[in-house]
Each structure stands twice: as structure tokens, then as C-alpha cells.
Specification:
about 300 residues; mainly alpha; 3-stranded mixed β-sheet; 11 helices; 3 strands
Length: about 300
């Protein structure tokens, strides 16, 4: 029996959002549409920034990387779900499940760090405008991006290595559309105390520290803007932060909503539906947030399409 319990599982079963066969075509069409909008929208943002020399600034450099990260994040989870719905198979191998968990952790953490770096960029642009281009030089921008990647990779790698130490029984069902870290850990038949401890401790550090930096940056920004005498100057300063604030609110609001709903209900299917918000909906809406009220992006879109 002990040997059997330590045998690593070969397959997981992703139950998805619904087991009703009549709903599957609707889910397939909905998620395919959202994935295509996410992919094309973020790709257009990247191409517009690359093609327009006026957008080769720190703010748009980080925005293009955020768009690339959103494409990678949704590509980690949605295509596998679409394949499962189309084929009627809900299986995912042990290796593929752990790989999906790793990359989902990597890209959601990178999203978190990129939003905090973008807040730092706006702080420098508004509070130190005369020294902005000197401080936010290409080398500094590259180092900030590299640090975000390194921290994200290490964070995901640590969780991945801890997952490899767990043993699982056979034929495990995951009431989700992808292999989420918390769901996978709690299916293990071995002791998960260290995994849970690491998960909550790391979530606190990775979540609270960047969010604190964002809040501190905007406190300084608001204080600096309020000292501007002209109403036009205040409006212009706040307009440069509006899109980023919307993206931050959407990202942290959906992530916080997922974890609050997880604490409030034991319904796994409800948690899966809530997770769709930050996994699919947020990356899909980011291109609209950054383009609808941004004249520079609109102009770059026109040049790109023409």
C-alpha cells in the first residue's frame, strides 16, 4: 500500500467549467473568441509599438512586454482547454500538468512585476520629469525587465521543484480548466505542509511587495500632481496614468476576487469560474484599456494598418 501511494500519477482529469455535453460547443466558441481577441489585440499592441519610432520610450517598452506576457499567459492554459473540449478528452499527463502549473505561475508573477515596474516608470515621469530620460535609460529599463523575469522564474521554479516532491494517487480529478497550483497540491496523498507554507508565504511576498510599490508610487504621483497649478497640467498628468491604473485595478481586483471566493466557498466549480477572470478576461481587456484612450497608440494603429 505504501508503495502504491508513492507511485506518481500518470494522468490528471481536468473537469473544466461544466460536464454538460450541450454546453461544450458554447464554451468552445466563447473561449476561442476570447483567445483570438487576446492574441490579436496584444499582438497589434506589440507591432504598433515596434513600428512607430515615437513609441520607443520606457512606458511603451514595458507595455509591449506586458502584452507579450498576456499572450504567453493565455496560451499556457486556453489552447489545452479548447483541445479537451473539441476532442471530448479531459486528460492531461503528469508532466504536462506540472509544466502548465509552472508556466502559469511564471506568467502571472511576471504580470505582477511588470505592473509594478510600469508604476515606477510613471512615478519617474511625473515626479522627476527633468531627469526622467536620464534615470529611465535603456540600460535601466533592461535591468528592470531582467529582474522581473529572474524573480518570476525563480518563484515558479521553487514551486515546481516542491511539487516534484509530492506523490499522487491515480486518476485524479481537477475541478478546473487548467492545473492550478493550489488545486494540484491539495490532491497529493503525501504531506503538503511545506508546499502550503511556501505557497502562502510566497504569495504574500510576490503580491504585497509589488502592490505596496504601486500604491506608494501613486501616492507620490497624486501629491506631485496636486502641486501643479494649471488644470490642464493636472489633467495631462492623470491621463498618462489612467490606463495603467485601470489595468492594475482589473488585475488585482480579479486575483483578489478569486482568493476571496476560494475562502468563502468550498464550491470548486465556482472558484474555477472566478479564475477565468484573471486568466482570460484580464489579458483580453488590456489591449482595449491601453488603446481606446491613448492617442499615440491609435495613431500607431492607423500607420500599422495603412
Amino acid at each position: 500500500m505504501e508503495l502504491e501511494n508513492k507511485t506518481r500519477v500518470l494522468e490528471f482529469i481536468l473537469l473544466g467549467l461544466s460536464e454538460d455535453a450541450e454546453v461544450q460547443p458554447l464554451l468552445f466558441g466563447l473561449f476561442l473568441m476570447m483567445y483570438l481577441v487576446t492574441f490579436i489585440g496584444n499582438l497589434l499592441i506589440i507591432l504598433a509599438i515596434i513600428s512607430d519610432s515615437h513609441l520607443h520610450t520606457p512606458m511603451y517598452f514595458f507595455l509591449s512586454n506586458l502584452s507579450l506576457n498576456d499572450i504567453c499567459f493565455t496560451s499556457t492554459t486556453v489552447p489545452k482547454m479548447l483541445v479537451n473540449i473539441h476532442t471530448g478528452s479531459k486528460m492531461i499527463t503528469y508532466i504536462n500538468c506540472l509544466t502548465q502549473t509552472y508556466f502559469a505561475m511564471l506568467f502571472v508573477t511576471l504580470d505582477n512585476f511588470l505592473l509594478s515596474v510600469m508604476a515606477y516608470d510613471r512615478f519617474m515621469a511625473i515626479c522627476h520629469p527633468l531627469h526622467y530620460m536620464v534615470i529611465m535609460n535603456p540600460r535601466r529599463c533592461a535591468l528592470l525587465l531582467l529582474a522581473s523575469w529572474v524573480l518570476s522564474v525563480l518563484h515558479a521554479l521553487l514551486h515546481g521543484l516542491m511539487l516534484l516532491q509530492l506523490s499522487f494517487p491515480t486518476n485524479l480529478e481537477i475541478p478546473h480548466i487548467f492545473c492550478e497550483l493550489n488545486q494540484v497540491i491539495h490532491l497529493a496523498c503525501s504531506d503538503t505542509f511545506l508546499n502550503d507554507l511556501l505557497m502562502y508565504f510566497a504569495a504574500g511576498l510576490v503580491g504585497i511587495i509589488p502592490l505596496s510599490g504601486i500604491l506608494l508610487s501613486y501616492c507620490k504621483i497624486v501629491s506631485s500632481v496636486l502641486r501643479i497649478s494649471s488644470a490642464g497640467g493636472k489633467s495631462k498628468a492623470f491621463s498618462t496614468c489612467g490606463s495603467h491604473l485601470s489595468a492594475v485595478s482589473l488585475f488585482y481586483g480579479t486575483v483578489l476576487g478569486v482568493y476571496l471566493s476560494s475562502a468563502a466557498t468550498q464550491n470548486s466549480r465556482a472558484r474555477a469560474i472566478a479564475s477565468v477572470m484573471y486568466m482570460v478576461v484580464t489579458p483580453m481587456l488590456n489591449p482595449f484599456i491601453y488603446s481606446l484612450r491613448n492617442k499615440d497608440i491609435k495613431h500607431a494603429f492607423k500607420n500599422l494598418l495603412s
